[in-house]
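Protocol step 4 of 6: structure prediction from sequence.
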Amino acid sequence: LHHPFFLVGTLVVAFMTAFYMFRVTFLTFAGEPRDRKKFDHAHESPFSMTGPLIFLAVLSVCAGWWGIPWLQHGFAQFITGGEGHHAEPSIPLMALATLIGLSGIGLAYLMYYKKSISAEAVGQRFGRAYTLVYNKYYFDELYSVLFIRPFYALCDFLWTFDMLLIDGLVNFAGWFGLALSIAHNAFDKYIVDGLVNGSGYAMRGLGRTLRFVQSGRVQNYAFLVAFGVLLLVIVQIDLLSLVVSIFEGSQ
């Protein structure tokens, strides 16, 4: 009571919690099913699911006994293992909180069970507030702007950096090594091996040509000697004629 802001805030939360929980209850278990094909044959869940829910419901109810004034300190000592602190009970505050909770339940009953109050009309009457609450105070949009989009942008940047720079350098190194290997192979095949093979081919051709000279036949040797002598005579006659013409020209 010494802090009205917190008092009003907690009472509003209590009202909205009661309203919301019973809204869910009425929409789920009361009225006509919204999908008859799916819910006409609806059945209760097996005990493997309802059993833990019942157990948790009992614990939820008993958990509130920690602060109940009439149990003194026994339950608090059992929970905390020490001396629990209890505020003095305030009957007006307890009555107000109960009234607020019942008001939330009553509003949910009138809107979603009896249909005497139109939820659509209330939404239109409080348009901006309804839009704000309906969009969850735009928390998802704010979270997206502050965290999701920057994270996606960072991921896109890192992906681009990896694709263009890292992978680009790696691929360039691979392509350059492949091109260098191709050039080295061509140089070795056509230049180095070409010179070696060309020398071998030239020697083999020369040998094939000279093979006809070294035939082992005396007739061929005599013909070559005679041809050589004749060639020398012709050359000497040409040289002698050249010398004579030069000498006569000088006189």
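Step 5 (inspection) to follow. DSSP finds nine helices and no strands in the chain.
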